[in-house]
Known about the structure:
The chain is of the alpha+beta class. It folds into 2 domains: 15-99, Phosphorylase Kinase, domain 1; 104-369, Orthogonal Bundle (Transferase(Phosphotransferase), domain 1), CATH 1.10.510.10. 37% of the residues lie in helices and 14% in strands. It has 13 helices and 11 strands. It has helices at 53-57, 61-74, 106-111, 118-136, 202-205, 211-227, 237-246, 254-258, 262-268, 280-302, 331-334, 342-352, 357-369, and strands at 15-16, 20-28, 32-39, 45-51, 83-88, 94-99, 104-105, 140-141, 150-153, 163-166, 173-174. The strands form 3 sheets. Strands 1-2-3-4-6-5 form a 6-stranded antiparallel β-sheet. Strands 7-9-10 form a 3-stranded antiparallel β-sheet. A two-stranded antiparallel sheet has the order 8-11. A hairpin with a 5-residue loop joins strand 5 (83-88) and strand 6. Helix 4 (118-136) packs antiparallel against helix 10 (280-302). Magnesium ion (MG) is lined by residues 29, 148-149, 168.
Amino acid sequence: MPSLPRPRPLTAGDTIGDRYTVKRVLGRGGFATVYLCAVGGTESRVAVKVLDAGAAGVPGGLSRFKQEARLLSVLASPHLAAVRDFGALLDGRYFIAMDYIHAADLSIWIEQRVAFDVADVATILRQILVALEAAHGRGIVHRDVKPANVLLEWNGVETTAIRAVLTDFGIAKVLDPERSPFASVQMTTPGEVVCTPLYAPPEVLAARPMRASDVFAVGLIGLELLDGAIPDATGDPKALGKKRCQMVELQLGPKAAASPLADWLRHCIPMRYWERFEDASAARVALDSIIDGMRRERAAASAPAELPDYLAGFNELGPDDEPQKLPLSSMITVEPLVTGRHALSHLVRLDTVGIGVERWERDAASWAARG
Ligand SMILES: Nc1ncnc2c1ncn2[C@@H]1O[C@H](COP(=O)(O)OP(=O)(O)O)[C@@H](O)[C@H]1O
Ligand SMILES: [Mg+2]
């Protein structure tokens, strides 16, 4: 019987599954190597994750890889890389072809000491949570959320240009397999835990991962993005795991502690899982209201400090014109001020359709010009 060719590292020009031509290595993790590939002879690009030859022999290695393909193929989110194909190389190694994300992973951004401001951090964390919501909604815990598993597409300038994509469902856990459409895969032998200790809360170290475990890891990414490091991230991973199991809470670094995210982060990272947001959805909803607050503050800071002349006297509205809520410098707070006056209620309308401050100023100026 002819034997399979011996697996060897793939290099540029090699083909995977007859259709993907290797261009270069995109990254390597614990179990696999990910290649940038051209599809057929076209300009179209995919990322192809090939399970390392050794990893298939590790107990649960191959079933874990197959499960990763299956889970990812049913989860849809702009913050996940969609699976396009699954197959085997001629030498027997398995591969997953997925959308290519043209981006460096967050661990590289952190290494490069990019200074993320708090709005950028909130946006990145929110997008990771949106990806996790898709998984948690289907009873899947990612279990390996960390900077190396988040790809960040960004020009480094505008917060609105950020796109974070969560990758690597290689050690994801299906909760409650009895009721899940996904069969349970026995990934490890009892007593073993596959995880990245630096981002793992005690229950993951104790082999009892849950949705709140992913929330913990998202919180730690937040600490790292804001302060450049996780406060207790020293020593060897085993010692760290033990320490985490014995401690109650982790201190925030100085920037995280002074940021509007401080309380939210404290709610992500308690060692006791029952003190955390219970899942990605709860954490995302709470984060949304902080992001809203930050937007309002920014709008307030950039709006004119004083009322234009034509609105002089506006503060002296009579009792009919209640309620009056100051300050007037923010477009958002204009809304409750304007009851009872035609011209001013016009501003309310503009406000409620959500137009920007500039447009508001322009409209207000042309209203004033009309006298
Ligand atoms: N869809 C993708 N597009 C671009 N790069 C990717 C993609 N998926 C993974 N990578 C890169 O490959 C690295 C390893 O992939 P990952 O899925 O984390 O493998 P492992 O399971 O071995 O950790 C990632 O850290 C990332 O840099
Ligand atoms: Mg990985």
